[in-house]
Design goal:
heterotrimer, A alpha+beta, B alpha+beta, C alpha+beta, A: alpha+beta, 5-stranded mixed beta sheet, 19 helices, B: Enolase-like, domain 1, 3 domains, 5-stranded antiparallel beta sheet, 4-stranded antiparallel beta sheet
């Protein structure tokens, strides 16, 4: 196929920005349907409480109230499901307690929904919800995952003894790992917390459900990253409605970061309500509700030991993690700390023995699920903190220590992929390359000199490294199926050539900030030799797009883009047949070059639009060939893709206050081939800021009663532009060997690589001042850093 | 995010505002940056809002009778960029520029902030250090309240029911006066964890005031009467109830007060 | 949140005790009380209005005295509900005679907030508790004035 048109690799400006920047995006909350009603919820103020009574009498007679439903009304409706089954070490299925649409007997976290009020206006719904009186008996709550497994801890679900959802292990036999650690010349041990984060998408979750009784047809507008998946889960697992009766639309969506992958109770409940009421029902989360209900991220408590031989080669890695799942099992909660975390513990290193032992635990807190990076940031944080700390402890250079342990370069074509100890096979990599480039950009030797000089002048400068790998482009369906996924993870790409030769592309991927309408159009226009304006990208509507699995795990281009390529190949192949007929040539003799069908060795050629028209006006047409130029393809990847990179942070720590200033950030990322460098750079910038947010600013704080005590922007600190220097980015390109575009994925890289680099830099700064600190709990607030210096 | 229903009245004169406040459970709406969020969260449910943001008489900065007069309805943004303030009370400009973010500075007003009396708001320390007077007006007339008498407790001021702040009046500093405002911001809200305002007069006398440290902004007389920077730092923020939260424990906050006092003293040295 | 403190008042323990045991006086001492109704010897039903800074809320609930030791002390159990969240507390109050007309009142207990109060209030809750206890003692002193 032709790539000579040259749109691939160009920083084309985003076509969607015209409507977003001018405020003309159309989000779920913008949609108002005829007869619209509005919902508001009564939610538990307690983390754990018996519900003794719910009195809706006063509320029911308030102005505008259309209906009120409580837990008793939906007792016979299924709860929302988990999409990934993980088994206990002993083979038993994980515990899957019901996650009801409304709770009737017991609230299990602050914000658990007790009643829904539906009214003619939003204000009336809120007023009436406030008038509902609930009597509670508060119960002791459990917040900490490692304490939740102890005997005598409060029980979140009766069906999950000791609050354990499942336990799980991966890697080499533990005896072998124990022996290797015991025989090591040096062991670096780190006890740490990877704290809980609130996703904070700028658009709060919103749903608008309607039911057309005359056609027995539901429509659900939802702020989702994957409309077809929501339809599948809601229809098959919760409401038992056949999916051809349900249209799910994810219109413009203002950010997800994972939190809008999941099927939430409100989506199913509103759909259930609209059927009862025969009127559309809309609910838009308040920001306070977002803090309490949008699935949180991370929340691991981990102890890790890394062994080294006398010359600094890693001998083994042993990991014990408690993963907090919150009160209910969210859609992908089970696979995040297991298959998306344990499998990445090889990192970029040749570690010969690895074992992870995981306990996944219920607590009286908001559900925890995938959040930008999902498991891979936790794995990277663990590895990269250990590497830098080991370098300090062994008095080695952290970059040197990495070079010593890196897996040697391999392209995955002439050299095989790299088989890890933890079940994955890396596709292609050149890990030395990104670190070398990063060190050069930083001016490493000069920095170390400056650091020494600063230390002599009483200033604390530090540098921190993070060389990460992630598994993206999820995923081969057979592989994830064998690991417990309850869905396939292929993608659908449908290319409809219009009679005029203009192109409509229907993709199962969903754009909520990624810029697919630009990137995908670039790919299609490039491959067909057309201007980008001739290509439209349609996504997010189950009625327009045949099927799809959606956007998460940096998969859209690697999987969704590949499905489009497959359809483009079919279009061109058929086009060649039509062109061959026109020129009375053999189809094998027709090439497609820069948007024209050309008969080899002749001057005969026809533009793409001419052949498209012939396909729809088949007056002079090959015998036996169907009219039309319209192909749909499913692409199921052969492997995950494995982007990697090197992030280096430089910080200055104020000796008197502990305040950390990030002064430089160097990011060298290898995300395979790049379609739009500007969009990739934007993704890296956004990801880095989010990852630095975890290191320095963010973190959900629960008190011992399970109250989220920083559930607003007054107290939950989001990173801001003035906290950052200009991020210095560079690319290295090691193409993915197993997908047609050679792309790996860029959406999560920044968020995965950056967090440990910043924490390592602060620790390095402290060591430069003689404070031999092993760990500071994230976020590294000024006080925590100051306290670390007082020890 | 929907407040309880309320009445709204826009006043165009101070007297009209005072009259509107005299009946019913009314609250003044100035910049609204503290009140409206509280209402949307239903933490506060006033029956009536009296909007004073369009009263021209409450806006502006001038010099009059040996005093710099800042209208209560003047925004932080205006104060930050005002030439008279920059030349005569530079630490007011510094402090104003450190409040919240651009949107907050363009809406929030000095009078609104003082009346709300958040213990971590910047202006408390400034008006105390500058020997300012707060001019209030109610149905029984105007009062002049010295800044030291204005702050009475957590969110509690000398304002009486139905009174509004009309002006902040600051004696024009004598030639040779030096000022400094040093602030350690809470990273999320950008309120002060510690704000230290200092006015060093031509005769060498130093006013030292803190905000963010205690439950109420205060003049630190022990630090003011200390003989050296070292002694002032040692004496600072002792003997008061120091606040504690996620971002700064009592111990750390007190430490910061001393660090920021030193910065301020060195700046005016 | 831990609530701890003490205060010395110019009155005998017997006089202080009498104040604390009298419903009408108590209603005047406890900050924000708009209604206090005695249910039995140790239980009161209350309505409180708290107006402080950003918060203006009405609370309904119970005050209950436990472990009552005449003129020595008791445990005050508080459960107060509002539309923006609930507050509960168990506070031990003890009276210690200092001189004939001086009594040290010590309090120590745990306050639990829920809902919006817990979410929004962490920065201020210490100060609010302090302010309310100061008001309590200053009200008590007013009652003790001859």
């Amino acid at each position: 196929m032709s790539t000579t048109h040259g749109l691939i690799g160009k920083s084309v400006k985003r076509v969607e920005d015209r409507r977003f920047i001018t405020g003309h995006g159309k989000y779920t909350d913008d949609i108002i349907l005829p007869g619209q009603t509005y919902a508001s919820f009564v939610r538990s103020p307690y983390a754990h409480a018996k519900i003794l009574s719910v009195d809706t009498n006063a509320a029911a007679s308030m102005p505008g109230v259309v209906a009120i439903f409580t837990g008793a009304d939906v007792e016979n409706v299924n709860g929302v499901p988990c999409g990934w089954q993980v088994n206990f070490k002993n083979g038993h299925h994980m515990k899957e307690p019901k996650h009801p649409l409304l709770v009737a007997d017991k609230a299990k976290h602050v914000g658990d929904a007790i009643a829904i009020v539906i009214a003619e206006s939003q204000a009336e719904a809120v007023d009436a919800a406030e008038a509902i009186v609930v009597e509670y008996e508060e119960l002791p709550a459990i917040v900490d995952a490692s304490k939740a497994v102890e005997d005598g801890a409060p029980q979140v679900h009766d069906s999950a003894p000791n609050n354990i959802c499942f336990d799980w292990a991966l890697g080499n036999p533990i005896e072998e790992v124990d022996a290797a650690i015991a025989a090591s010349a040096h062991v670096t041990t780190l006890d740490f917390v990877n704290q809980r984060l609130v996703p904070n998408a700028i658009e709060p979750r919103a749903y608008n459900a309607s039911y057309d009784q005359y056609n027995d047809k539901y429509t659900l507008y939802t702020s989702t990253q994957n409309p077809h998946l929501i339809r599948l889960l809601m229809c098959a697992f919760v409401l038992g409605i056949p999916e051809h009766r349900v249209r799910v639309v994810g219109p413009d969506v203002g950010g997800g970061f994972g939190s809008k992958i999941f099927h939430y109770t409100e989506e199913a409940l509103l759909t259930w309500c609209t059927h009862k009421l025969r009127r559309p029902v809309k609910w838009t989360s308040t920001r306070s509700e977002s803090f309490l209900l949008d699935a949180h991220g991370r929340d691991h408590i981990t102890k890790a030991d890394m062994g080294f031989d006398a010359s600094g080669n890693i001998t083994a890695l042993r990991v014990k993690t408690y993963a907090n799942l919150g009160a209910y099992l969210s859609t992908f909660a089970s696979c995040v700390p297991s298959y998306l975390h344990g499998t990445l513990l090889q990192g970029l290193y040749t570690t010969p023995k690895i074992n992870i032992d995981l306990v996944a635990v219920f607590t009286n807190t908001t559900a925890v699920d995938a959040y930008r990076g999902a498991g891979r940031p936790e794995a990277t944080y663990l590895l990269e903190r250990l590497l830098d700390l080991a370098a300090h402890e062994m008095n080695m250079d952290p970059a040197e220590l990495r070079f010593k342990n890196f897996i040697p370069p391999f392209d995955g074509v002439t050299q095989p992929g790299y088989q890890t100890q933890v079940a994955l096979q890396y596709d292609s990599g050149n890990y030395h390359g990104v670190l070398e480039k990063g060190l050069a950009m930083l001016g490493y030797e000069d920095f170390r000199k400056a650091q020494k000089e600063a230390a002599n002048n009483g200033k604390l400068l530090g540098v921190g490294f993070s060389t990460y790998i992630e598994a993206c482009g999820i995923a081969p369906s057979a592989v994830v199926g064998s690991l417990g996924a309850r869905a396939g993870l292929y993608e659908v790409g449908h290319v409809r050539v219009q009679p005029s030769g203009k192109i409509s592309v229907y993709t199962g991927a969903h754009s909520h900030g990624q810029g697919h309408e630009t990137t995908f159009a670039q790919v299609v226009a490039d491959k067909l030799g057309l201007p980008m304006e001739d290509v439209e990208i349609v996504h997010g509507d189950s009625e327009a797009v045949a099927f799809g699995m959606g956007t998460y795990g940096s998969r859209s281009l690697a999987v969704g883009g590949s499905a489009i390529i497959k359809s483009l190949e079919k279009v061109i192949e058929k086009g060649k047949k039509i062109a061959a007929h026109k020129f009375e040539a053999n189809p094998e003799d027709v090439d497609f070059v820069e948007g024209r069908f050309v008969v080899k060795g002749t001057h005969h050629s026809a533009p793409f639009s001419d052949i498209a028209l012939r396909a729809y006006v088949p007056h002079h047409y090959p015998a036996g060939l169907e009219p039309g130029l319209d192909f749909s393809s499913f692409y199921d990847p052969a492997n995950f893709t494995y982007p990697f990179g090197c992030h280096i942070a430089v910080v200055e720590v104020d000796k008197e206050t502990g305040k950390v200033q990030l002064t430089r950030f160097v990011a060298v990322d290898d995300v395979g081939n790049i379609i739009n460098p500007m969009i990739v750079e934007g993704q890296i910038h956004g990801g880095v800021v989010q990852g630095v947010g975890q290191a320095l600013f963010e973190g959900a704080e629960y008190d011992e009663n399970g109250q989220l005590t920083n559930g607003s922007y007054m107290d939950y600190c989001m990173p801001r532009a003035d906290d950052f220097p200009m991020i210095e980015t560079a690319s290295q390109v090691t193409p993915c060997p197993h997908n047609p575009l050679g792309v790996k994925g860029a959406g999560e890289a920044g968020c995965i690589g950056s967090t440990p680099a910043v924490v390592n830099a602060v620790i390095d700064a402290l060591w430069s001042g003689g404070h031999k600190v092993k760990d500071i709990r994230m976020p590294l607030t000024s006080e925590r850093v100051w306290r670390a210096m007082q020890q | 995010m929907i407040p309880v229903a309320f009445d709204y009245q826009r006043a165009v004169t101070v007297d009209e505002a005072i009259a509107a406040l005299s009946s019913g459970d009314g609250k003044i709406l100035a910049g609204g940056h503290s009140l409206l969020p509280a209402m949307k969260l239903r933490l506060n449910q006033p029956a009536k809002l009296v909007d004073i943001s369009k009263i021209d008489a409450l806006k502006g900065i001038k010099e009059e009778d040996g005093e710099i007069v800042i209208g209560a309805g003047t925004t932080h943004g205006t104060i930050a960029s005002d030439d008279l303030i920059k030349s005569k009370l530079p630490f007011f400009a510094t402090a104003a520029a450190l409040i919240g973010d651009v949107q907050v500075r363009n809406h929030g007003t000095i009078g609104g902030s003082l009346a709300h009396a958040d213990p971590a708001a910047d202006w408390g320390a400034l008006v105390l250090a500058a020997d300012a007077a707060i001019i209030t007006k109610g149905s029984s007339g105007s009062r002049r309240v010295a800044a030291v008498d204005f702050f009475q407790g957590l969110f509690t001021t000398a304002l009486e029911d139905g009174e509004i702040i009309t002006e902040v009046r600051i004696p024009v500093p004598a030639e040779g006066t030096k000022t400094s405002y040093q602030k350690f911001s809470q990273p999320a809200s950008r309120f002060a964890i510690v704000g230290c305002a200092i006015m060093k007069k031509a005769d060498g006398k130093i006013n030292i005031a803190f905000t963010g440290v205690g439950e109420v902004p205060f003049r630190d007389s022990a630090a003011e009467s200390a003989a050296s920077i070292e002694a002032a730092v040692t004496a600072a923020a002792e003997g008061i109830t120091v606040m504690s939260d996620h971002f700064a424990s009592e111990e750390y906050r007190k430490h910061l007060a001393k660090v920021y006092l030193r910065k301020a003293l060195e700046a005016v040295a | 949140m831990q609530l701890t403190g003490n205060h010395v008042v110019e009155a005998s323990p017997a006089k202080v005790w009498a104040l604390l045991m009298d419903t009408d006086t108590l209603a005047r001492i406890v900050p924000g009380v708009t209604k206090l109704e005695k249910i039995d010897d140790t239980t009161f039903k209350s309505t409180l209005g708290v107006k402080l800074g950003p918060v203006s809320a009405a609370f309904n609930g119970n005050l209950q005295m436990e472990n009552v030791m005449e003129e020595k002390g008791f445990t005050l159990k508080i459960q107060q509900n509002s539309k923006v969240g609930n507050a509960s507390a168990a506070i031990e109050i003890s009276l210690t005679p200092l001189e004939e007309t001086k009594t040290a009142i010590a309090f120590n207990g745990d306050v639990k907030l829920s809902g919006m109060l817990a979410t929004m209030g962490q920065r201020l809750i210490g100060g609010v508790a302090n302010t309310l206890s100061k008001q309590f003692f200053s009200n008590m002193e007013k009652e003790l004035l001859p």
